[in-house]
Amino acid sequence: MSAAPIRIFVDADACPVKDECYKVAARYGLKTFVVSNSFMQVPRTPLIEQVVVDAGPDVADDWIAERIAPGDIAITNDIPLAERVLQAGGQAISPKGKPFTIDSIGSAIAQRAIMEQLRSTGEFTGGPKAFDRNDRSKFLQALDEAVQRARRRSS
Predict the structure, then answer these.
(1) What is the assigned CATH class of domain 7-154?
(2) Residues of the chain whose pLDDT is less than 70?
(3) Residue 6 contacts by C-beta under 8 Å, 6 or more apart in sequence?
(4) Under a CB-based contact definition with an 8 Å cutoff, are residues 132 and 139 in contact?
(5) pLDDT in tens, 141-153
(6) Contacts for 135 with CB less than 8 Å, ≥ 6 apart
(7) Count of H-run helices and E-run strands, the chain
């Protein structure tokens, strides 16, 4: 019995590394789902499938979480979605190349809660630093490593 093929799920609405996902998907022949609540251009290939979900909080996240399986990889900045992916046995990577792990997700959730609390009190917390070429490079490396891990586990 062979393992299910590795799939990539992209939480695409604000994802700056969609093109990098397409390149890695093509290199390894991986089915990739680009999930958003609006239409966007995606490469015309059977490997890339655009999924447009209804607008609303967590609709794209729910679509991904309901379909992710062990060995799959999700690209997201959404920490609660990353936790759901990990719980389902998948891997989750941020667009800046930071893998979410079972060991790190708890502190990421706590940090997110603290930042939300500060913002709700009117505290100026600034935003994340601008996305740059170095982040893009880190992401490509992290996604390639995630694919290699998933391939080793399935063999």
Answers:
(1) alpha beta
(2) 1-3, 105-119, 122-128
(3) 28, 30, 71, 72, 73, 147, 150, 151, 154
(4) no
(5) 999 999 999 999 8
(6) 95, 96, 97
(7) 5, 6
Extract the tokens encoding 132. Answer: 């740059």
The answer to whether residues 86 and 79 touch, using CB atoms and an 8 Å cutoff, is no
Q: What is the pTM of this model?
A: 0.85
**103: which 2 tokens?**
């060991």
Alpha helices in 1-132 (DSSP H): 18-28, 59-67, 79-87, 102-120
Domain ranges of the chain: 7-154
Exposure string of 59-68, with b = 16+ CB inside 10 Å and e = fewer, is: ebbebbbebb
Tokens 């939480």 belong to residue: 11
